[in-house]
Amino acid sequence: MKVMIVEDEMLLAMELESEVEMAGHEVTGLAMSRSQAQEQIGSSKPDFAFVDIHLMDGPTGVDVGRELAAAGIPYVFVSGNIKKIPQDFAGALGAIEKPYTMNGMKNALAYVSAVIAGDASGSPPVSLVLAEDVTPAKPQS
Amino acid sequence: MPEKDQFQTDARNAGNRLVAGHVSEDPFAAAFKATRMPMIVTDPNQSDNPIIFCNNAFLRLSGYSDDEVIGRNCRFLQGPETDQETISKVREAIAAGQDVAVDILNYRKDGSQFWNAVFISPVRDEAGAIIYFFASQLDFTNVKSREADLAAARHEAEAEVAKHTANLRSALEARTLLVHEVDHRVKNNLLTMASIVKMQARVTKDDGRRQTLMSVLNRIEALSTVQRKLFTLDDVSKFDISEFARELVTDLVDATGRKDIRLTLDLSPLLVPAVKATPLSLIVNELVGDAVRRGLSDGGGDIHVVVRRLNGHFLIRIEDTSEPVEPDIENAELGQMLLEASARQLGAEIERKQEGRKTIVDVVLLVDDHQENTH
């Protein structure tokens, strides 16, 4: 799948890029701010995105997330403070808490790419906090 | 002023008539004169309702002499700060021939103020006509000033409390901001350190070096997991070693992608002081890592992790059934050093047992309640 990385710490972004590529995916771009992310959402049409909450222009990762959700692109937050994520998770699948481990990221990426490919049979790894486990459950019909 | 003299004479005559109505040994008149309560009598049937009689207590209170009082209307006791509404109230009651009780600010002859609790009451003859007004006074300046002092003190205290609260609130906000900033920095730096090691591992062409770097990365990442789990409980001074073990072990085993490594967990929440989080986590990391490495080397195996209380102490047990294999010597040596240092720091006992293919490692952390509760 085509993955966009929204992260203002370039070293972390590049290292994550290597991980994603090693797992057999393509990285469409690294964005360090909301405007860079907006540009790339339009131009490169990623299948999935990792989004840090705190970017170069402030805590704009949530806005980036909402734009991704509006464009129908699944994504997860990658943040050191998952308590800062809004209650509705801004349309994200879930969140990976920093500092993630190599294994944690690998497991989360494998799970997410399987889900996006239509295989939701696996169980989510501990490193991935799913939005549906955090947001209030919808009443069952 | 002859006219004024005439008034005073009339007033005094009226007073004399009043007294003459009572024989000298009349106990009521004697009481009126001798009481410590200031009292006056006025005659509403004379022009401007003058005072026709006053007792010594009244003279003491007002500072005037008998001559200065008799024949005058009571309003000479008023001054610039006397409340106009109170004065009106008194005037209206007298005009209506009714009782009235007011607290009024009055002035002595020397100009000093006093708070006067005045009670005025009409005195009627047998036909019901008002012949006198009787007024008693009570100087309650002390009470009034005590009230004012209390109110002022209360306002001052309230202002002081509000100021301190505002200070504390802003200090707390600053502290919270700082803690978040530091936490964020620590997390980012841990991830940056890990990234640098991973980059170097990616760049190196040498397998041995790569192994060494990955062995370093493993320990850095154990600390990353600790950092993620710190400050997540309501009591930020505590760290749940069970939660840490669950995440570390699952992460590690999941990432092997090996279905033949079977993991079972028996974890109960075990809160340790946050200061013990790092050495305890390093111990768990070494033991679990060791078990997984052995499981990886042969045909898989079972790994069972227990975290619970045992006789008041903390027990962490890692059991695995796998063929013991020759480990990477350097990694094993580093692991041993970390285990020893951490155990020594915690005062923990590590016991290793071998039962056939089964390896059982028990870590017992002796906790006394004092230690457990203070940090």
> Gap between N and C termini of chain B, in Å?
92 Å
Which chain pair shows the most residues in contact?
A: A-B, 22 and 27 residues
Q: So what's the overall shape of chain B? A: rod-shaped
Low-confidence stretches of chain B: 370-375
Tell me the count of domains of chain A. 1
Mean pLDDT of chain B: 88
How does this structure look, described?
The complex is a heterodimer of chains A (141) and B (375). Chain A has 141 residues and is an alpha/beta fold. Chain A has one domain (2-134): Response regulator (Rossmann fold, 3-Layer(aba) Sandwich). Chain A contains 5 helices and 6 strands; from the N terminus they run E-H-E-H-E-H-E-E-H-E-H. A 6-stranded mixed β-sheet of chain A has the order 2-1-3-4-5-6, sandwiched between helices. In chain A, helix 1 (10-22) links the parallel strand 1 and strand 2. The model of chain A has no long low-confidence stretch (mean pLDDT 91). Chain B folds into 2 domains: 2-139, Beta-Lactamase; 235-374, Histidine kinase-like ATPase, C-terminal domain (Heat Shock Protein 90, 2-Layer Sandwich), CATH 3.30.565.10. Chain B has 11 helices and 12 strands. Chain B has a 5-stranded antiparallel β-sheet with strand order 2-1-5-4-3, with helices on both faces. In chain B, a hairpin with an 8-residue loop joins strand 1 and strand 2. The relative contact order of chain B is 0.06. At the A-B interface, helix 1 and helix 4 of A face helix 6, helix 7 and helix 8 of B.
